[in-house]
Every structure is written in C-alpha cells, then in structure tokens.
C-alpha cells in the first residue's frame, strides 16, 4: 500500500511538474533570434538539427569524445531499458516491446557503464570536479543504484514478475494489488519514485529544456521574417 | 592609469588545456562608470542600498522576458563539455573563466531564489544567497567574457554563456555598478551618433582628407560622400573606420568598390556608427534606441539599400536583430516596417554585408581586380566570433565562412587557413570583444588572445603568413595592440577590404 501511494504521488509530481515547466518555457518569449550559426534556414532544417542533437548528441560529439561515449551509452541504454519496462504496463504487450525486450536486458550494462564513466570523470578530471555539486554526484549514484538493483533482478535473483505486473496494471486501473516483497525490488522501486519526484526540480530538466533552447530551435531567417516578441512590440507604440 | 603588471603567456606549439589555478583573475575589475554616464543611461551610479532586492527583482524580470535565460539556467547538467572551450580559461587558467563556472555564478543565485530545490536544499544543489562577494565576482567575471558564443557551439543543450553574461551586466547596471567603457560609448552613440563621439564636421574633414589621399595615390577622384539624399546605398560602418589604423584602409577599400561599380552611396553623419554596444549589456531598449538611428537615417536619406561595413558584433545586430528592432529587412506587416519596405530595393538582402556586396560584384564581373598587387602578402583569415556564430552571409548556412574567404582569394594569390578547430564555427575570439576593448582590461585581453595567437603562430611558421585579414573593428584594434606582446608585427593586421582596395581596378 505504501508503494501504491508512493507511485501515485510520484507520478502526479512528475507529470504536473513537467507540464508546468513546459508551459513556463513555452510562455516565456524569445525576443531575439539567437540561433548558434551556421543554423538551418528552414523549419524542417531545424527539426533535423534537433533530431541530431537528441539522438546522437551532435554538439557533445564535437566537444568531448569521452563525455559523448559515456553520455550516449547511458542515455541510449536507458532508452532501451525503459522501452523494455513497457511490458509491465501494457496488456497485451506491444509487439515492438517484445522485439526490444532482449536488447533492453543487456542495455542495462551499457547504461551502468556509461554512468560509471560519467561518475569517474567527476572525480578524475579537475575541471569537472571543480564544477560538480553534491547533487551532481547523487543523481549519478541514484541512477547507478537503480540500474544495479534492476540488474540484480534480471541477472541474479528474479522477482515475481507476474505479481509485479499485476501491481502496476492495478495501479493504472485504480485496483490496488499486492506488491512482491523482494528487497531488491523494493529498493529499485523506491529509487525510481525518488527519481520521478526530483525530475521536474533538478537538472534533469535538460530533457525538456533542450527542445526549448533558442540557440538550437530557431530558424536562421532574420532578414526574411520579422520576429518580434509581444513585450517588445509594445515599445513600438511609443514611436 | 597603467594596468597591473602581468606575465605574457608563452606561445607553445599547441593550444594546451591548463590545470586550474583558482582565483588568479579575481583581481580584475574594469573601471566602473562615473555618475554622468550612469545618469544618462538611467542607471544608479553607486551601489544602491537595497541592491539585493533590486538584483533579484531584475533577475526575475529578465527570466520572464528571455526564454534563453530561463532554459539555460535550468538545463545545465555540469557535464564539463564547455570547460576547455573558452579562450579566457585557456589563457588565464582561472576556473571561473570556464563557461559553466561563469554561468554558475548566476545559476547559484537563480537556484536559491527561483527554484524549489535551491530554496529547500541550497547546499545540495550549490545554491547560494546573493552576497556582496558574489556581486563582486559577477563584476569581475562577467567582464572577462567576450560573449563570443564558442561555448554554445559545444554545449549539448546550446547553452550560450553570452546570454548569462548579458543578463549579469544588466543586473549590475540596475544596482548601480556599470562598466565605464561600454556605458560611456553607449552615451556617445546616442548623443552624437557614433562610439568615438566624433561630430559631423570632424567626419567631413576626415572624409575630404581621405578623398585627397586616394586621388594623390591613384589619380582617380574616388568620393566618400556624406548625407547625400537619394544615394542608392547607405553605408553603416564602425566609426573606427574613420580614424583608426588599419581600419581606415578598409573604408578606402569600400569607397573604391562603390566607385568602380558605379554605385551611388553615402555615409550618414546622424548614424555614423555600425557598432551597437547595447548588445553587450543585454538591454533590449538601449540596443533598439541605438539601432533606430540607422532606420531614421535611411528614411531621411531615402536610401534603397543598407550595407554594413567591417564590424563583427555590428553585423550580428544588423543581420540578426535590425529587422526585429527597427524593421530593416523583410516580412514585417506592421505600419512600422511597411513604410521602410516601400523604400528598400527588394532585389537585395537588407541589410547586406559589404563582403556580400563586393563578392557579388566580382563574381558578376561588375568590378575587376588584380590579385597580383597583393603578392607581397601571405594571408590568413580570422573568423570574427559574432560573424561566425551569430550571423550569416549569402543564402546558405555557413556563407559567413565561405564568402569572406572567396573574396580574399579573389584579391590575393597566397592564402592559408589556420588549423581546424580554431576557425569557422570553432573560431577563437580575438580576446577584445563584448565590451572588453579597454586598457583597464589589458590583462584579460592579452591572455584571452593566447589561443588565437597560437594558431596564428603556427601558420606563420609553416606558411610564412604575414597578413591577418579581418572583418571586425574590434578584432583590428585588439590585434594591433595585443599581437605585438606575442612578438608579432602589428602591421600584419588589416581588413579584408584593405586587400580589396589595393586590388580593385579603378576605371
């Protein structure tokens, strides 16, 4: 029951928090065109630029190959792992989730290697150590612990996956079912709920933030289109 | 007012990432603006009593007006990708000159006052109360950023430290600590029409003198017209072009191009400045007021085309912001813009960069050039930061790299690029941009020029390069002053149109 409540609260905080932040970003005007150039001159061009940023981390690749390798391993691993987890929330399980399933299992290794690399950089590189705050370490440790506890259940001590699925399906249909009381599972779920809660109030906001970054999402067409924010347009009434 | 003594960094073969040396640049304090200057700008002239409240209030105001600031302060994950990208960090090794650390000077305060995590668990997320010490650090380190945007190229979220620096300076102005250099210039340009504070009659004298020089030199009566109504082109150029060396050589170059192409043109005594320091201080209204003089001059003189001379940040403001600020451009459907569009010739981009104009004329055969007159030069080209990373030329992305190079190669026979990773979008700032081109920041300027000087030194050794071609007034002034400290001859610094002016055939 505690976990059922925990997940309802975490979900509400995550969803409401993210919706608020996204609403807040989109209502805040961008009064000047500031794409980092060379930039695309068309909207489809911007979509392509953004896709490269989000899928292959293009700017990071230009910047630092070590951060890129670890960062990409972690994020892509996490993506596969999350896709695999959809089977606990869908009935029947979507066909593509079945296809991803075996990859998702081993993607956890990618994810953990990536995270370990990123954590090591925080200790080993003097410049990165200098800029790291306690929360920077803790978020990495949190994600590592989520990955490790998940891997324990996948590769070492299986949990009762049937009951677990009944628990989550029950949550979704407001029909609370008992949760298997395996320690690794309880740890795993508590940490995931924590991650969900801190997502909208931490640097994890980089996930929605990247889509709102004016230097990446603006079209480079200032000579052809007049771009004026509402508060700036008001200045013109005084002329 | 001699700047403090400091060691000139040694030029090595490669641009090296230094070990951190904490606080080595904390002593740098640019001269604060005196009362008269701040009064004119509408800012207090000394630290106000309720500075803390006012600073937080201003930060909140800016967070509501600029999506860039809000997203950039939230999105950083401290990955470290930018830590070795800033020329000021590479040149000074002060960790607060790493882009992320410079941003964190503001981010720590943002988190404390504007985010739940920072309000509840300040230590955990590195949030801090705004103190006088932090304000002092802002003043030091937001005047060790040239707003060159190199970090924004390499950030996985496109976080642009320039936006943070601009906001930081704006907040500092609002609590009463403005920078003398930039704010004085903003006063001059708004009162007199140019950054140097040159009145109309002085300009006329200078232009007449230049006309005599050109005629004595070439035998051709090339004109430098001013305030001519009905001229086709209104040329807006940095006021350094009127008086400084080597800038004036480019002005002569533009005049020769217009003469050879038979294009009627004029300068304006009312808007005799392309530079717009409003950009550096992050004040939209100031930037708009400065830009508005150009629109007014264009309407007054009836020009059909507006062309911008060699100035980096001016081209950013002209290309990226003039349409927004003043309606110089296309696509506006408000009365404000429509009036101007009726006058401007739609067959040309508005505004147009002088390099776009000259390069087109050469390609279309409308002017002839003889590159062999420049055979004494082995040339390399420095991409100015604001042109490279904040604007474009021509119709294709990256035209800002190709068009100046095409133009240079049309007028010289010996050309070599500096190393990859130091040019084009990854170009290193000259070290003097963004309102730092003042003697009281000489240490920052010299050390910040280290990466560029290193790359330059390599092409000098390898290809005997003896001419550094530029399209920015600040770069020209900075390099003539700073490169000699690294053992280069200041005469190797010059404008692209200095080379064009020598090569263009005049009849």
Overview of this structure, please?
The complex is a heterodimer of chains A (239) and B (507). Chain A has helices at 2-27, 43-56, 58-63, 65-85, 95-124, 126-131, 134-156, 161-172, 183-198, 206-209, 214-217, 230-233. The model of chain A has no long low-confidence stretch (mean pLDDT 95). Chain A contains 12 helices and no strands. Chain A starts with a helix and ends in a 6-residue tail after the last helix. By secondary structure, chain B is mainly α. Chain B is built from 24 helices and 7 strands. Chain B has helices at 35-41, 51-65, 67-75, 87-92, 99-114, 116-120, 122-125, 132-141, 150-154, 161-175, 180-191, 200-218, 240-243, 247-261, 284-301, 312-326, 335-343, 354-363, 385-390, 399-411, 442-448, 450-463, 473-482, 496-503; strands at residues 233-236, 265-266, 305-308, 352-353, 379-381, 467-470, 493-495. In chain B, the strands form 2 sheets. Chain B has a 4-stranded parallel β-sheet. In chain B, strands 5-6-7 form a 3-stranded parallel β-sheet, with helices on both faces. In chain B, helix 23 (473-482) links the parallel strand 6 (467-470) and strand 7. In chain B, helix 3 (67-75) packs across helix 10 and helix 20 runs parallel beside helix 24. Chain B starts with 34 loop residues before the first helix and ends with a helix. The chains are: A mainly alpha (239), B mainly alpha (507). Chains A and B meet through helix 1, helix 3, helix 6, helix 7 and helix 11 of A and helix 2, helix 3, helix 5, helix 7 and helix 9 of B.
